[in-house]
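In the previous chapter we treated chains in isolation. Here, by contrast, the input contains four separate entities that must be folded as one system, with a combined length of 1424 residues.
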Amino acid sequence: MARAPVYYADYLKLDRLLTSQQPESLKEGVDAHDEMLFIIVHQAYELWFKQILHELDRVERDFGAVPVSDDAMARIVHDLERIHEILKLTVAQLDVLETMTPFDFLDFRDLLMPASGFQSLQFRAIETRLGLAAETRVPLDDKAIEERLSPADRTALSEARERPTVFVMLDQWLARTPFLDWGGASFRDAYRQAVEKHLARDADFIRADRAMPEEKRERELKAIDKAIASFAAIFAPEGDGGGWRLSGPAVQAALFITLYRDKPAVQPAFRLLATLMDIDETMTLWRYRHALMVERMIGVKIGTGGSSGHAYLRTTAERHRVFADLFRLSTFLIPRAAVPDLPASVQARLGFVYST
Amino acid sequence: MARAPVYYADYLKLDRLLTSQQPESLKEGVDAHDEMLFIIVHQAYELWFKQILHELDRVERDFGAVPVSDDAMARIVHDLERIHEILKLTVAQLDVLETMTPFDFLDFRDLLMPASGFQSLQFRAIETRLGLAAETRVPLDDKAIEERLSPADRTALSEARERPTVFVMLDQWLARTPFLDWGGASFRDAYRQAVEKHLARDADFIRADRAMPEEKRERELKAIDKAIASFAAIFAPEGDGGGWRLSGPAVQAALFITLYRDKPAVQPAFRLLATLMDIDETMTLWRYRHALMVERMIGVKIGTGGSSGHAYLRTTAERHRVFADLFRLSTFLIPRAAVPDLPASVQARLGFVYST
Amino acid sequence: MARAPVYYADYLKLDRLLTSQQPESLKEGVDAHDEMLFIIVHQAYELWFKQILHELDRVERDFGAVPVSDDAMARIVHDLERIHEILKLTVAQLDVLETMTPFDFLDFRDLLMPASGFQSLQFRAIETRLGLAAETRVPLDDKAIEERLSPADRTALSEARERPTVFVMLDQWLARTPFLDWGGASFRDAYRQAVEKHLARDADFIRADRAMPEEKRERELKAIDKAIASFAAIFAPEGDGGGWRLSGPAVQAALFITLYRDKPAVQPAFRLLATLMDIDETMTLWRYRHALMVERMIGVKIGTGGSSGHAYLRTTAERHRVFADLFRLSTFLIPRAAVPDLPASVQARLGFVYST
Amino acid sequence: MARAPVYYADYLKLDRLLTSQQPESLKEGVDAHDEMLFIIVHQAYELWFKQILHELDRVERDFGAVPVSDDAMARIVHDLERIHEILKLTVAQLDVLETMTPFDFLDFRDLLMPASGFQSLQFRAIETRLGLAAETRVPLDDKAIEERLSPADRTALSEARERPTVFVMLDQWLARTPFLDWGGASFRDAYRQAVEKHLARDADFIRADRAMPEEKRERELKAIDKAIASFAAIFAPEGDGGGWRLSGPAVQAALFITLYRDKPAVQPAFRLLATLMDIDETMTLWRYRHALMVERMIGVKIGTGGSSGHAYLRTTAERHRVFADLFRLSTFLIPRAAVPDLPASVQARLGFVYST
């Protein structure tokens, strides 16, 4: 109550914030108007990255608990939706950065060597905490990205690696889903049959299409065989996953959620999966657009960090995706009419107390 | 050449930047997850405001010179286009802030009293340097906005007021336009006649429209009379401006630019006017959307700064517009076919040396 | 199975779609390149309006049922979220339209008289079906908007008026909320006490603020009194609403939802309210931005429909808001710690069967 | 004057436009709410594509003339900027389409076979008229894309191929640039020397970097050698282009424009190049994001057109780029200080008559 009145500039630490732009060109007495933009764009990115990590902290707390309470699930979805909103903004920020031309960038580019955006600890930490495995991370010039980091940042990244990732928490939470035991049968068996029947129908369709060139027909049929095999693998009791990163039970649960999404108890879970895909997609998009921008800015020349920048970025666009399995699920969806009916006992458990 | 290698985190002063978020709720031991977002959004705004001021610095340097060189004009347009791009981003940032609900805001809102976004010196400075006159600024709770500022910030704002504004530099630069002297006649006379003829035609059209209710007809005819009077005023040799903030010669020049925009020597000037309107419009939009957000967040309750927040913001949306005169120009445009032909002597001067 | 193969252009009726642009300027032999843009932007708007109406059809079906099933609630939220996404796109479309300059518009503007966007039946129908009451609609030039419509369109709008609006369905659905009866006490009583206590605290705060000018203090205290009165009115058993458009029980339910949003049974309802505010806000924004654009395009001259366009649009921006009551709720929120605890019996009913 | 009054709905042909949505599911009696969205999104795309083609028509007329007048150049830039603005909107439209889930798409997906977005004649025509060569177009399932088109559409695409493309007109216009003859020396020689000196400095920098692993050093030096060779090729009198699609003189002119962009006579040309890169980048982005969406929607299953959809789309994202050469230019930029000074005679010709 006896608190001192708060002043805007003090609250936001503007004395520090607005004196943290110290262009190298200024130090060198070089005229490089756009270095200020370059600094500020990157600082804005780092502020947003901090916010994303702040959200991931609460997600970790909420999602790591067993069981995840209903209140916590609402918060998790909300926090991830906010992360998605922030990521959309980071894509939009590229519009501002692109008002700098390659020629203007040259005014100060060499002064920054060998600094590089690859050294953003926070961005690496976001990738890691979402679930990008160290061994999946594409090496830069044949070296782990860590070699570019300062010892302190390297330690910080190691620590981030020790924490439970969103991917792993998702995998475990999905695998605990209580609705897959359908009494006598199981969702697994009922759905596997339905999918196989449906894919077989697709194969018949292809075989019957006389206009289709032979070579193509073979390719498509092979794709269906591969789909069936990959599906069988995740449904096998001791399956090796068949190329899935999620465990078999987790994939089964994700399918269940996708199919019965409108049931009250499933809705939050459905939002969760959708938002994780949004995040994955927007990060992929950001990487890709970033790659295009770097190409426009630098051409084929070496990046400020000595890397062959845009090619690297383009590679990571795909290979750093964390939730690709969720996208793959679409392969195994079947039309509404072919989806097995929920047993009454399961159906009842998906509603609210007051609606029984 | 013997420069020390630059490291990303050092270059961006991340040690300062990322430790400048110090939530009041943390100090008070209150759990308020969203205060971090609140801080970071505002810090991101302040970073962008700094960038806008950085651009306005160069605009002032370039646009204050007499004459403004052709190279400088290209830079001015470029810098203003960048400001517009940044403003679009500041509108987009509201999407992120709106992921905070009013109920979550309550967790820490009272702790911030009486701090308020009205205390953003940089935002005030941007308005001022674009050309918002001190006497036009809407008072907040019947007091000048300065009374909310710290002495240091008040001084800084006073200093900003001493600098040449974009509006004033525009006014003077327009008034110097060398193409309005058409030898015997003048652009002024030729165009005034053309406009009056055209507005008279509009009036005839209204008088002839029998379906139009009497009351409305009178209103519309009165509007046309008013338009003619206001137009006459700016064209009178010693005109008082007739409600225009720009001087008569400046308005004439702006009209000239709008009509003959495709001529090489006029194109950069046309871009300049269009970009200033973009800036005005996007700032207006930002204020308006900000007002809507504050209403959603706070209801009719008092703002953190003690103001009746959203109503005030909505008022400023209109009244803080700086370049409204440029929007008014449309009133005096006439169809292409009615526009006077350029005298050959003027036409020649609008081209390039090599194209003569 | 024996269906004929579908061809893209046939499926989309491109032969009709792409021949539906018939510029008036072409008929008159006038060169007006931008009329095509003008037509296509408006046609794109009409396509999206049709989609919004399509969503509102299903919302009406789902939301009009008693009770609204859990599955239906999921669909309603989804459909409204889609409408919001479409509305964001309609705002973005203005960026494209603004590439047309006022001078280019003049090339064909007079040829369109007296057609006007005010004649868009679909837009009127959207407003109506969301819940804009006929008597609230701002008259255009002192006449009902219908007078501008063709007889067929007028009939269609009348029919739209007969249908249950989203606002009315919301009001009724909220009023049926089963969680407000707290046994001995009621949510109403418990919360009213909590709010009054809180607003009294605010009043104390204002009285104790010596730095606050007398005039302002009175104004703020009066605002609080008014807030208490308006709140009392909705909580009175036979309240006249105190300026609320929603019924007392509906407002109470909306408050309940806002405060206990994280409970599973409340989450979909919370999403619903949030999305309706998003829709209201984005439509308001669209109208406002549209007004700015019209001003830029036309100046103070008469609109194509003979109205004083932009001033009218600006008025509707505020007065055509449908869900303003939901924004007002924020006034009556109190900090988490002051919110009454849910009775155990109610709490239990808000969870899932399986989580009891 | 005696024109009949125009009515909004008639002007926009709404009777045709709004009856052109004929869902296949409706014909089959299948309940598929989202097919309407699917149709309307695609129709909105086709409307925008028509607008883009309308702009390309005028660009072709203006840019195909010899010489291109100054007025025409202003229009060309304006029209291309509008195309860019439309393309940004088409990216935003994906946000709306993504509100349809894969499971909802399944409700009607099979009914559309074998129709596919690949059959959009207008999109193909846009690519073609910008300058995508028939031989560069990635075949779909080993066949030319034309094989999917109806005979009429195939003919129309053939006709589009006969027209001068933006790429070709750009190439020719650049090659005619009158400012490359510097009297005794030439821009070509002066700049080649400057670049080679600069790249040699880069090579020295790499050789001196002891921390760089051997393998990497070799790779980077090889890249520089390759850059010099490619550069030499375009500067050779009878060069084969060294991998450039633009002719040698055109590349030289594009470099000239990039370096001396602020000179009045160069500014419109600089805008032109920047806008073409914007268009290329946004189309690339659209293709890429489209690919991600298709993957999310369909998984690895066959597309509606029988293609392995998203993989194909991803391939075209890169390979259908038309103005990649402009991005490559950045490789050959050198810092401002190293850029050769313009001879006085050339400098004079780049200004306006009145500024001499």
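Chain D has one domain: 14-355. Strands of chain D lie at 181-182, 185-186. Compare these points with the single-chain example from earlier in the chapter.
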